[in-house]
Design brief:
By secondary structure, the chain is an alpha+beta fold. It has 2 domains: about 5-400, di-copper center containing domain from catechol oxidase, CATH 1.10.1280.10; about 435-555, Hemocyanin, Chain: A, domain 2 (Sandwich). The protein has 10 helices and 19 strands. The chain has helices at about 45-60, 125-140, 150-160, 185-205, 265-275, 280-285, 305-315, 335-350, 365-370, 520-525, and strands at about 25-30, 80-85, 85-90, 90-95, 105, 115-120, 165-170, 370-375, 380-385, 395-400, 435, 440-445, 455-465, 470-480, 495-500, 510-515, 530-540, 545, 550-555. Strands 12-17-14-15 form a 4-stranded antiparallel sheet. A 3-stranded antiparallel sheet has the order 1-2-7, with no helix packed on it. Strand 8 and strand 9 (about 380-385) form a beta hairpin.
Length: about 550
Amino acid sequence: MASLSSLLLLSSYSQTKTKSSISSNKRHVVVNYVSCKAASNNGEDSVSKFDRREVLFGLGGLYGVVTATSSVLAAPLTPDIFNCHMAKTPGGIKDCCPPQIGKIIHFVPPKIQQPYVRRPAAHLMNQTQIEELESGIKKLKQLDEGDPHSFLHQAKIHCAYCDYVYNQLGSITETRFGVHSNALFFPFHRAYLYFFERILRHYIGNPNFAIPFWNWDSPPGMYMPEFYNRPSSSLYDHLRDPRHDPHKLIYLNYNGKTEDHSFDVVDCNLRWMNDRMQVQSPRSFLGRVLKAGETPNPTDMGTIEQSPHNNIHDWLGTKTPHFEDMGSFYSAALDPLFYAHHANIDRLWNIWKTLDGNPKDHIDPDWLNSSFVFYDENKNAVNIKVSDCLDTEKLGYVYQEVPLPWLHMNKIPTPNPWIRTEESEPPIVNFPQILNSDITTMVDRPEEDRSGEEVDEVLVLEDVEYDPTTRVHFDVLVNVVDKAQDRCAAFLEFVGSFKNIPHGLHHHDKTSLRFVITEVIQGLGLERDKNLAVKIEPMVGGEGVTVGGIKIQLEPLR
C-alpha cells in the first residue's frame, strides 16, 4: 500500500542534461518527439529552432510571443512537462514528478458503444461493483512505484498539478502552472478521473467498469460510504479524521472547528447546494479563465470549488500537522475516496448546464485549448485539451440519475435578523486588520448602474494576506452585527466562506476575495440602503490572516 512517506522517495527514471545549469530541485523529464527541420537563410538546417516550437504547437496550440517590451499575447495554458520541479508542499519537499515520458500522443475520443458506461452513486452500489472497485485499487497499489499505473503515481499526478511542479509552457518568467483556483479546476479533474477509470478497467478486466460518485448533495449520501471505512479493504485510508466515520453526517460548509451544529444540517446542506449551483455565469461557477503569465488566485475560484469541494477535503483530513491525506492537496489522492468525491464534482458540472437559464461553459479559446498530459491504460502519454472534456457522453460515460432535492430549496433569512438603527450600526473600521477576532464594519454601496448592462453587486475583501501552507477558514456575512455563533451557510445573510486547503508556496502574497451579493441584497430587501453592515468571522487560522480593506463594486454579469 502506498504510504504518505513514500512520496519522499525519488523515482528512478533518467534525467536529461541541458547546456544551462540545472538546479538541484528541478527534474527534467525525457520526452521523445519527431524533429521538424527547416532551412535557414544560409541554407543550413535549423533543427534546434523548431524542435521546441513544434512541441509548443503539439501540446497546446499557438503560444504567446514575447515582444521586446516583454508583453505576452493571450495564450492557452499547458504545463512544461520537460522540466518538473520538486514540489514544495506543507509536508516538505516531495517528488511528484512522473516517470520517464516517451512519445506524447494527442487525445482521440473513444469509440462509443451505447449504452454509455454509467457511473453509480456510491451508496447505491451492489456488492459486485464494490468488489471490482476494491480489486482494481488493490492491483494498482501492488504495482511498482515507478509504474505510471501505480496508485502512488496516480496520486502524484494531483500533487504535480496542484502543488506547482510545472511551469507554464513558453513562460520566460517561470510562471507556475496550477489547476486550482481558476477555470481549469473542472476540466483537469474530469480528465484525471477519465484516465484513472480506464486504467482501473484495464486491471479489473471489465470494459464497463465505472468509478462511483459520492452523492453528498443528497441526504442518503451525506455520510462517508461505509465500504470505504473497512480496515481490511484497499479503499481504506488510515489518514482520515476518525470523528467523521460513516455514521457522521457531513456539513458541506464544514469550518474545521464546529462538530455538532444547532441547526438542521440536512436542510442547510440542501439550501447551500442550491446557492452554489444556481449561478448563471461561467465565471461564477467554473472560475476565471487564466491567461499566459497569470498564476492561480483564490479570488478566481468558482462556487463549487470554494464550497463544498474544499470543505469536504478538510472534513476528511486528519489532525496531523498538515491534515493529510485529503486535507492537503499534495497527499489528497492517496485516499481512494478522493476519486468518488471528485466524480460528484464532475457530475455537478454536468447538472449545472441543464439548469434554468441555460448556463454555458466558457467560450474563451485560450481556455478551450489549454491542456494536460496523462498516462492512458496502455502507458501512452496523452495530451488532452479542455475542449476534449466538455461532454461526458463523448468520453463514453454518464451518471446514474438520482433525485436533486436541493433544486428548489432557496436560502432563507436568519430567524433573528438585525433590526437596523442608528445606534446599532457598527463603527467604520480602519484597515488593514489582523483577523484574530470578528471584524464588523459599514461599507458603502456603489452608485446605481445606468449603462443598461446586466451587472452583479460584488463584495470584495482586498489585499488578504495568508500563508497558503496553513489551514484557514473564515465566514463573510452582511446585515449581521452580533457575536459569532453557529450559523447555517444557507441563511441569506451568509454570503460565503474562504477555506484554504494547505498547499504549495506559489500563491501571491496578497489576494482579493469576491462574493456576489446581488440576490442577498434583494432577498433581504436592502436595495435602497446606501451602505451595508459586513462581518468577517474567523473560524480557523484567523490569527495568520490580514485583511487590507473591504469594498462593494458592480461587475458585468457576463
